[in-house]
Specification:
The structure is a homodimer. Chain A is mainly alpha-helical. Chain A folds into 2 domains: 63 residues, Arc Repressor Mutant, subunit A; 146 residues, Four Helix Bundle (Hemerythrin (Met), subunit A) (Up-down Bundle), CATH 1.20.120.530. Helix content of chain A is 74%, strand content 4%. A two-stranded antiparallel ribbon of chain A has the order 1-2. The longest helix of chain A has 25 residues. The first copy, chain A, is elongated. The structure holds a DNA duplex.
Chain lengths: 218, 218
DNA sequence: TTGATTAATCTTGTATACAAAAAAGTTGAC
DNA sequence: GTCAACTTTTTTGTATACAAGATTAATCAA
């Protein structure tokens, strides 16, 4: 199934927002975007409506659409929900996971480990994504899986920042291992608790996240 | 903030799908809908894209949009996620709820009780909604609250069916009371577990849900 | 009759034209 | 100089026109 043009444009605009080309609070001019992407206003409007529904921009009727980056409070809230959703995945996965998937988790963790040793942040990031995607899948609930991906995607630009914390990679790795161990033991509660703590914004992570928001806030 | 026309149309189309005017799998003809609502294709297309994003219809590029009602498996999955989300709300609310909100929960339950005695299904339904909305709010996480409302709304047409179960109302009431008690005690785990079981589709509820789907399945 | 190839029709996707509302600019009174 | 009412311009929302892909119908060969 091929993608629609407006979906591609929506993704591109999303990119422009994430990389700061379009700043928070700024109005997204339809004609300007139309000329930038060399299309008419119609597909631009479709893309903007898609972004409005995903919450990345706010659409004020008859006034225009504006970039609305989440503030500190909303961001904390979103991470809390992400932590809870992933915790649910972990708990459900504990009783539903396949041996094959457990094997894959071990493999992914090994690659993660190697990336940490090699100080390969990108490699770590990639395998980390894979780890979490595997847990989503092993929840055995594809609707839950989709919801997790949706929120994960929305938090992506902020999530990446977290990993920059000194020593965070190693701690994150040990949490991954604890999660896999709990899954192997079929201990859903432990898996959920570790996963929740793994995602949750707390302690130094909180301060770091706040610090990363400073520039956008002023 | 006034609503957009296409949003109103989207809601109306949603209604047409829910009340069976437009059946599952049917194609939503743009020109037909345009003449029905006496507008051009433009706002119809906007409405359809909104519905596509909410998952109520599926949009196949260059082919059209089709009603896609959830099948049994997806429905069970959605209810499982709803149960987990509400359980999270309950657990968080246990440590965050205000005295005022606890008071309101008691009041709502009293009205619920009265509706059960009076065999007032609609009244029960209304107060039940209020009860759950209060718990969402008291999670202290407005993003979570919104997500709960979103899924709740999507499950609404199926949720209503559940209450028709003989004796379900009284059991549901006692579950509500157990939840409030747990919240009063600040016992998040109990509140979460009771709430999860309260929403989850299991036992007779499962068979009832399946039975209600039969007509649409054949 | 069946099957495949091509032509006609229908439907979606995009561009443009128009209407209506909001924002910006201007004029004039005080 | 400031504020208010009016005018102009800009911008969104809607309708319509056009382009291109998909579906259906039709033609023709085996």
């Amino acid at each position: 199934m091929e993608r629609k043009r407006s979906d591609i444009i929506a993704d591109e605009i999303e990119g422009l927002i994430f990389d700061g080309t379009i700043a928070d609070g700024e109005r997204l001019d339809e004609v300007q975007l139309a000329s930038r992407f060399d299309v008419s206003r119609t597909p631009i409007r479709e893309a903007l409506q898609r972004l409005a529904q995903s919450g990345l921009v706010e659409q004020l009727p008859r006034r225009g659409v504006f970039v609305r980056q989440p503030g500190p409070v909303e961001l904390i809230e979103m991470f809390e929900v992400m932590a809870e959703l992933e915790a649910v995945c972990a708990r459900l996965a504990a009783t539903r996971i396949s041996d094959d998937a457990l094997q894959k988790l071990h493999e992914t963790n090994a690659l993660c480990d190697a990336a940490v040793e090699a100080n390969d942040a990108n490699g770590y990031f990639r395998e980390n994504e894979r780890f979490h995607a595997l847990v989503y899948r092993q929840s055995g609930n594809s609707f839950l899986e989709q919801e997790c991906f949706r929120l994960h995607r929305r938090l992506q630009p902020f999530r990446r920042l977290q990993l920059r914390l000194r020593g965070r990679l190693r701690q994150s790795m040990s949490e991954h291992k604890a999660i896999v161990m709990a899954l192997e033991n079929g201990d859903g509660e432990t898996a959920a608790n570790v996963m929740r703590a793994h995602i949750a914004v707390q302690g130094e992570k909180f301060h770091h996240l706040m610090a990363s928001l400073k520039p956008a806030a002023e």
